[in-house]
Each structure stands twice: as C-alpha cells, then as structure tokens.
Design goal:
Number of domains: 2
CATH class of the largest domain: Alpha Beta
Cofactor: pyridoxal 5'-phosphate
Helix content: 40-55%
Shape: globular
Strand order of the largest sheet: 4-10-9-8-7-5-6
Family: Belongs to the class-II pyridoxal-phosphate-dependent aminotransferase family. BioF subfamily.
Bound molecules: 4'-deoxy-4'-aminopyridoxal-5'-phosphate
Distance between the termini: 54 Å
CATH topology of the largest domain: Aspartate Aminotransferase, domain 2
Protein name: 8-amino-7-oxononanoate synthase
Radius of gyration: 21 Å
Number of strands: 14
Oligomer: single chain
Pfam family, one: Aminotran_1_2
Number of helices: 14
Keywords: Acyltransferase, Pyridoxal phosphate, Transferase
Order of helices and strands: HEEEHHEHEHEHEHEHEEHHHHEHEEEH
Strand content: 15-25%
Length: 388
C-alpha cells in the first residue's frame, strides 16, 4: 500500500514539475465580476476575458426571471425520469425558432451537448472530419464516439475535400462557427458544399457566434446562408446564461432523446436557469447590444494594431493577442493585471505549442474609457515584457 502511494505521489509530482518547467502550470484565481470590471485576487481590473459578450448575465430582467422561478434548487432528476420542466420545453421551442430548425434539445452544458450529439450520430462505421482548431469538447466527443477521425488543416477546405473524397461509409464534417481561441470564422459555405457533394452530415459548434452574428443574430451559418444539419451551442456566452443545446431536425432530436448518454444519464438543467434563458433570448435578438459590441471591437483592435500587436485573423469579439512563448505570455498577463487589466494567457494544450497568446474578449458592457485604459495598459505591459 505504502509503495503504491509513493508511486502515485511521484507520478503527480513529476507531472506538475514538467508543467512548471514548460510554462504550462495553471492556477486558479479568485474572481468576482461587476459589470465590465472584475476583482482578481483582490485587485480591481477591466475584465477582458468574459464570454458574457452582451452582458446579459448581469441584466436585471434576466436575473429577475431566474429569481421569480426559483422554488427548487434542482429538479434532482434526469429529464426522462422526472426532470422535464415546462420551462425547458418553452426554451427549446424558442431556440429552435432562433436557429431556424425543426427542434432543439437542451443539455446541462455546451460540453455535454457536443459529447451527446456526436456520440449519438457517429460510430465505428463513421468517419468524422474535424478542423484542427476545434474545441476540446469536440475533440473529446469525436474520440468518445469510436469513429475514425480525420483532422483537416484549419479552415482548409481543399484539404477537407481531399480527405472526404477518399472516405467510404458514413461521414460527418464538424467545425466551430467562430473559433474560440482565434476568433476567426469557419468557411461554412464551402464546408457545407463539400458535405453535400460527398453525402456527409454537417455539425457546427457555434458557441461563440450564437446571438452575435447573422440575421436576427441566429449565428454563423445564418450569416452566410449555409444550411447545416446540426447546430450546437452554449448558453453561457452570447446569451449570458447557462447550459448547452442542439438545434436540429425533429428526427435527430428523437435519436438524441433515445440514445444520447449525456442527455439520458444526467440531471436536467434547473428550471430557473431555463427561465433566465427564456428572458434573455428576446433581449439578445434586439440588436442594440451587438451594435455596441461591434463598435468596441473596432476601437480595441485598431488601437492595439497601432501599438504594434499581432491579432491573428480575428473577425469577432475574440481577439488573440499573439505572444508565442508560454512563459512570456504568463508574464505579460501578470504585468497587465498590475496595470489594471484582466486578460488570461492561453497556452498548450488549448492552443498549439509556441502559439501562446492572451485571449481578449470584448463585451457590450465596455465603454470607451475602458477600451482606452485597457489599450494603454497593453502598450505599457507590452513594452516592459518585450512583446512590442
Ligand atoms: N464549444 C466551444 C467552442 C466552447 O468554447 C465551449 C466553452 N468554452 C464549449 C463548447 C463548452 O460550453 P459550456 O461552457 O457551456 O460547457
């Protein structure tokens, strides 16, 4: 027993040491949020890493909707047993209309929605074609499904077509709508065209494009007029709420209800969170918040570029401020916090080795004074750490 414990202790110590040596050690910060500001480990700062892109998580109407509904902290049951609350059904109807699909199915998180949908639709007789920069939850979903996985170069539709054209059996192409660490948009029209030509199903995880882009803010496929078979999203980003969902045909929804383990064997999303989302959807579709967000994106990116920072190919509220070296990215982030800005360093395995960056995300809550103060702090910290 004692020697087993020693081996485990050694394993843990070695793993942690290796992470530290490579500049990949992660530690939790204590963060409390107030509007576009956050107190981070006791220090007040402009919050530049929230996914609450429209600020709806703090909107009184959304919060009140949750409070009004709150009688029970949890339904304490899965949906097929006793957890199918009327608010979930109402929310699903709204989400289906929003994404222009026949139906929608709510999951406890966006992570679970990816796992649930992909594992229900793919098996060992399926080949999944997955963009190399897809989110960890898509990667995990593909692995868990047991399907053959072919990774295509980021947004490289020629590479995708080359791989798809050689494959036999059932096929699925999967991509993000807006890439979560780069902020660029998928070449969704071409992906759908290739999928149609070779009889492949299309799945888009639009967690970061949902409620931000497209007509009526219906997301990236709607923006480009692309018809995808399965839309996956998280409600804890543009919508400012919590949970995940899949919007798709009525038949695929039935399959998910009947076979998706991440739907069947887990507790339902609590009703007050569904009520909050029901209140948030019409607020997210009015467009005034996106207008402010896009103005902030314009201001922030032009100021940072003027200072000489490299922002990758972002075309959205997610801006990677490229650093490269992992340790340098952490130092830069720490220096920024000292100057009143909270922007996290993102490193391997979230992004490729040597492509560490600060992942800045802007929101509609930021005002001009926050953008000006933040970009001034970036310049100061960037010069001190040798990034510009
Ligand atoms: N997909 C993408 C692209 C994401 O960025 C995230 C969260 N960062 C998820 C899915 C998971 O969503 P959730 O936080 O609701 O589990």
């Amino acid at each position: 027993m004692a020697s087993k414990q020693n081996k485990t202790t050694l394993f843990v110590d070695e793993k942690l040491l290796a992470l530290e040596k490579d500049g990949l050690y992660r530690s939790l910060k204590t963060v409390s949020v107030s509007g576009p500001l956050a107190t981070v480990n006791g220090r007040k700062a402009i919050h530049l890493c929230s996914n609450d892109y429209l600020g709806l998580s703090q909107d009184k109407r959304v919060v009140q909707a949750a409070v009004r509904t709150l009688r029970q902290v949890s339904q304490c049951s899965s949906r097929l047993i006793a957890g199918n609350d009327p608010f979930i059904t109402k929310l699903e109807d709204m989400l289906a209309r929003h994404r222009r699909t026949e139906s929608a199915l709510v999951y406890p998180t966006g992570y679970a929605a990816n796992l649930g949908a992909v594992t229900a639709l793919a098996d060992k007789n399926t080949t999944i074609f997955s963009d190399e920069l897809n989110h960890a939850s898509i990667i995990d979903a593909c692995k868990l499904s047991g399907a053959r996985i072919e990774v295509f170069a980021h947004n490289d539709t020629a590479h995708l077509e080359n791989l798809v054209s050689k494959a036999a059996g059932r096929k699925i192409a999967i991509t993000e709508g807006i890439f979560s660490m780069d902020g660029d948009s998928a070449d969704i029209v071409k992906i759908c065209r290739i999928a149609e030509k070779y009889d492949a199903l299309t799945i888009v995880d639009d967690a970061h494009g949902d409620f931000i882009f497209g007509p009526k803010f219906a997301g990236v496929p709607a923006k480009f007029g692309a018809k995808v078979d399965v839309h996956i999203s998280s409600m804890s980003k543009g919508l400012g709420c919590f949970g995940g969902y899949v919007a798709t045909s009525a038949k695929i929804r039935e399959l998910l209800v009947n076979t998706s383990r991440q739907f069947i064997y887990t507790s339902a999303l609590p009703d007050y969170l569904c009520a909050a989302a029901v209140a948030a959807v019409p607020l997210a579709k009015r467009g005034n918040l996106q207008k402010r967000l896009f103005e902030n994106i314009r201001q922030f990116s032009s100021q940072l570029k003027k200072h000489g920072f490299t922002l990758g190919n972002s075309s959205s509220q997610i801006m990677p401020v490229m650093v490269g070296d992992e340790k340098k990215a952490v130092t830069f982030s720490e220096e920024l916090l000292k100057n009143g800005v909270f922007a996290q360093a993102v490193r391997y395995p979230t992004v490729k080795r040597g492509s560490a960056r600060l992942r800045v995300s802007l929101t509609a809550m930021h005002e001009k004074m926050h953008i000006d103060a933040a970009t001034a702090a970036f310049e100061k910290a960037g010069r001190k750490t040798g990034i510009i």
